[in-house]
Design goal:
The complex is a heterodimer of chains A (161) and B (220).
Chain A (H helix, E strand, L loop, with lengths): L8 H33 L4 E9 L9 E11 L2 E13 L5 E5 L10 E3 L4 E3 L6 E2 L5 E3 L8 E7 L2 E8 L1
Antiparallel strand pairs in A: 1-10, 2-3, 3-4, 4-9, 5-6, 6-7, 7-8, 9-10
Chain B lengths: L1 H13 L1 H9 L12 H20 L9 H10 L4 H28 L8 H23 L4 H15 L5 H9 L6 H33 L10
Helix pairs in contact in B: 3-5, 4-5, 5-6, 6-7, 6-9, 7-8
The chains are: A alpha+beta (161), B mainly alpha (220).
Chain lengths: 161, 220
Amino acid sequence: MAEPRGISRRAFTTRAMAFVGTIIGTVVGIPIIGYLVSPAVKASTTETWIPLGALSKYPVGTPTQSNFTLTQVNGWEKTVNSYSVYVLRGSNDSVEVLSNVCTHLGCRVTWHTKADEYICPCHDGRFSPTGKVISGPPPHPLTTYETKLDNGNLFIHVLES
Amino acid sequence: MITNKVFPWLDERLGLKTIYKTILDRNVPKVNWWFTLGSATLFLFVLQVVTGIMLTVYYVPSPSTAYDSIQYIMNDVTMGWLIRGIHHWGATLMVITVFIHMLRVFYYGAYKYPRELTWVTGVLLLLFTLGMGFTGYLLPWDQKAYWATTVGTSIAGSVPLIGDFIMRVLRGGSDLSGVTLARFFSAHIWMFPILIMGLIGVHLYLVIRLGISSVPAKTD
């Protein structure tokens, strides 16, 4: 094609089209990438302090069960999960909060006052009042929660992924 | 390298230059800006397809999740508001461009011999576009969507004799329900798009085969 010097009308149009097309492609294309990877990037780790009520309502020396719920949000789905913990209040406001999930295979342990132990119903794992393994298959002590006292109320730190 | 070796190799086998010449380098009479509306509509359709496919990534067409999944798209997904916004406004704009495109063809008499079939496929495309608008309107499953579809399907129900049957077919039952939502979704993302794509193919083939008519002169 023998074109005169400078840019021809046709070449100008072609380049203008390519330019505008690139802009449109970018304006639509880049948001689409962000849109598609969004749930992976926004992996939400919620960490909250769960209130377990006034510490004074828990008896000293006896592990006492306390329940709370956590709402897990996945996209438009909300799942409410129930959790149980054991609160062991010591003297002069010291407190220990233990998860009731057995460290062996995740069954729920129960406090047995007579035996003075937590007993797991699945494989007879036994834990002491402070969560140490006494007998059975559990490899670790019961998980403890970080606690804080605010105005006489007990809070535990929960990390939910 | 690409222009010297690869392109000629491909062109010899695929006839790319011929395709380019036939589609883009065809002769056209001197026309005006009203003649761009068909291309504008095609562009909007492509945009609707792309953004629509993106919306199905998160949208779930059931009464319990439709509204919430759209809230999720709008509030939580990166650029979700933009993708849905383009789809929403693109839909409105497409109805407008399709309609003005039709008016231009009508007032310029471009539907006359030998372009009658271009006109007929165009009218079908207009109807299917409106069908897309009607079925898409229900999908957010909010009050406006629900009652608009209640009214719309009731209008279909006013047809003599077979009206009630048509209304039941549209609703998938006597009332609006999850069945309605599911079938409107199916029509919106499968049936109408396939029909529209096929007809766009025929429409464009006819436009290229017959060429476009010029702006009529005063003496025409």
